[in-house]
Each structure stands twice: as structure tokens, then as C-alpha cells.
Amino acid sequence: METIRTIDWMKQAARQARAESRIIGFVPTMGALHAGHTALVQRAKQDCSPVIASIFVNPKQFGPKEDFTKYPRTIEADSGKFSAAGVDLLFLPEATEIYPAGFGSYVTVEGLSDRLEGRSRPGHFRGVATVVLKLLEIVQPDFAYFGRKDAQQVRIISQMARDLNLDTEIVVCPIVREPDGLALSSRNAYLSAEERRAATVLHRALTAAKAELAAGTRDSLRLQTVIRKILEAEPLAAVDYAEIVDADTFEPVARIARPCYAVLAVFMGKTRLIDNLYLEPVGDSGELTYHL
Ligand code: PAF
User: Fold this and answer.
1) What is the model's pLDDT at position 180?
2) Which class in CATH covers the domain with range 186-291?
3) 33, 54, 58: which to mutate for ligand 1, most atoms within 8 A of CB?
């Protein structure tokens, strides 16, 4: 695996791959890698060669009181993991390379960026969309891979790709979980042993919602009640939001009649965790498929 630190060099390497008619896959990350990230690489390797990954802890997507300075930076271990997973090129820019002095252009995906995560983390999606557009412009991949744990993020990136006519197909990959159901996240590293045990409550709440749906419930309020009851019974958990939303607009829905998410954001102490259950009606039968 070759490590590239400058935009010029990264563009040149990607240009060369395109000149050889190769299919470029791209996995952007902020590092602190876990099996969810390596699953994205594995998926990319099925479709593409070369696979390019990036590690960049993007300052523009953190609020002033958020964890930018303490976000785990484990570059050596990450580099080993990406290399072992079969990444061909690792793009590892400094912040001044991505945001040189005088930088002043930002991307906002309107509407979608204001809800849920955007409401709790003002400016977050502006930072995400801006850095992802920059990375996609630099690498110009055929496919870019994102995890469904950040469902709103990937919806916003897909909207941006469509609105701005990007030549990259955005691929959404399944959530990877610990054996006890906790969704993998770099922020899980912040949890104390006690918080880590309690953090399974997100998965337990979504599993209960799934059982309620399987029993025929389609009413969002009823599902929210089931979810909240479980979350609120956990003394270490503080609910930020627990909502049933349309998978396209991320607006609340009253009934499940089209693709929807049950989305959660929950504080475990100071650590904010998110998770979701994706629901898709099958034909006209009223049956649902579940992606947890
Ligand atoms: O999901 C992430 O790790 C980040 O938000 C991303 C997409 C790499 C942009 O910084």
C-alpha cells in the first residue's frame, strides 16, 4: 500500500488509474478504524481496483464543543489495517492541505441537513458535504462506499452527488455490529466499561421495534413508545432523539407505508451514539424487510 499526502500526487495517481481504464473504489474515513471500515474496503474490492482509502479527521464537521481534539488518532495501526485489508493507495493529507489559508467555499445540502443530526449538531453536515465533495473531486472514484450507521450522512452525500452531477456512484453498506448488537463506531472507544455494557440498549430498543413491526404495528407513535420505554429504562442513557422518519426526506412519518428508518441518538455519559433500523415494505402485501 502506498501512502500519499498531497492533493497533486493523489490526483496524479487517480488520473493514471483512469488512464488505464481501471475502476476506482474509494473509502473515505476519519481513521480509528474498526471492522465496519474494513468491511467497506472488502466491499470496494469486490467491484474495484484500485481501492483508495483516505484518513482525514475533518475539523469542519465538529462543533466548537465537540470531540475534534480528542477524536482517536491511530494512524500507524490504521495504516496496518488498511494495508492488510487490501487498500492500494492511502490518502493521508494534513489539514492545511485540505483547507489552506483563505479557504472559503462550502457545500450545503438544504433541508436534509437541518433535521435530526443536523438539528443536534449545527454545521455538521455542511462540514461533511464540503470535505466529501473535495475528496470526491480529488480522487474522482467510480464508486464511493459509506456505512448505513450514518444513514442521514449517506443520504445527504447521495443527494449532493445527484444535485452536483458527480460521476461517482454512492454505495451504502450494512451496519457492522459487535456480537452483543452494539453498532461499531470509532466513538465506542470513549465508553467506560459500565457505559459499554449499557450501550447495548440502542440495539435492544431497535430489536423491540422490529418485533413490534413483525407483530403488525405500523403506527409510528406506538413504535416510538416501545423504543423510548426501553431507552429510558437504562439509567446511563439520555435520549437525544428517537424517531421514525421517511428514508428519503428524513421527515417524521405517522405510519410505515414506504421505506423508513427508526433512528436513534443517545448519550451514554458524554458519548453520543447513533443507530438505526431500516424498514422497507415488500410489494403491496404490507410485509416489511428489516435491516438492523
Ligand atoms: O463518516 C465519516 O467517517 C466522515 O463523516 C467522513 C464521511 C469520512 C467525512 O469526514
Assistant:
1) 98
2) alpha beta
3) 58
For 180-214, what is each residue's pLDDT tens digit?
Answer: 999 999 999 999 999 999 999 999 999 999 999 99
Residue 36 and residue 147 in contact, taking contact as beta carbons nearer than 8 Å: yes
CA distances to 198, 205, 220 from 211, rounded to whole Å, are 21, 10, 14
**Which superfamily does 2-173 belong to?**
HUPs (3.40.50.620)
Cβ–Cβ under 8 Å, residues 150 and 124:
no
The residue extents of the domains of the chain are 2-173, 186-291
For a substitution probing ligand 1, which of 37, 68, 153, 176 has the most ligand atoms within 8 Å of its CB? 153
Over residues 60-103, the pLDDT tens digits come to 999 999 999 999 999 999 999 999 999 999 999 999 999 999 99
The Cα–Cα gap between 278 and 264 comes to 12
